[in-house]
Amino acid sequence: MLGKSALTRGSSTSSEDRVFIYEVEGLRQSEQTDNNRYQIRNSSTILIQVPYSRMNEEMRRISRLGGKIVGIRTASAETSSEN
């Protein structure tokens, strides 16, 4: 229980299950992105699914790679627009 609140530990919040979609433009290929399993293109935007718990970490990573986040939306909004 070190560093964890006893009050928040017992309840499960819906934020743990939420997934967001980042629309990112301007990512460039570099030594760091060469380790990815996919190519990064400069010419268009890409969509990256990010769990709520990793949002800040992913924002920093995108910034380090030279990208710009042009939009953030919930994954549930994406699935409801498809139906």
TrEMBL record:
Taxonomic source organism: Calothrix parietina FACHB-288
Keyword terms of this UniProt record: Antenna complex, Membrane, Phycobilisome, Thylakoid
Family annotation (SMART domains): CpcD (SM01094)
CpcD-like domain location: 17-75
Localization annotation: Cellular thylakoid membrane
Protein's UniProt name: Phycobilisome linker polypeptide
InterPro entries: CpcD-like_dom (IPR008213)
Superkingdom to which the source organism belongs: Bacteria
Topology relative to the membrane: Peripheral membrane protein
